[in-house]
Amino acid sequence: MGRRCKFANQCHVFQGKAELKQPLFIVRNMYCNNGERWWKKCRVYEMYMKGEEVSEDFIPTEDLKP
After folding, report:
1. Does 62 map to a domain?
2. How far apart are CA 28 and CA 9, in angstroms?
């Protein structure tokens, strides 16, 4: 396992506030806790890196939409 995303504490997905198709622990292990290679596949991560505001209902990837 890699490292936790540096935006985890402010991320609504990591905090479990987003409605996702996959269980939260799977999403966290796949994207949030798996190092930079996987963080870069997350649109929420990209938005935080650009300094953009992320809405509470924004989903990180299309395959996680409910």
Report:
1. no
2. 12
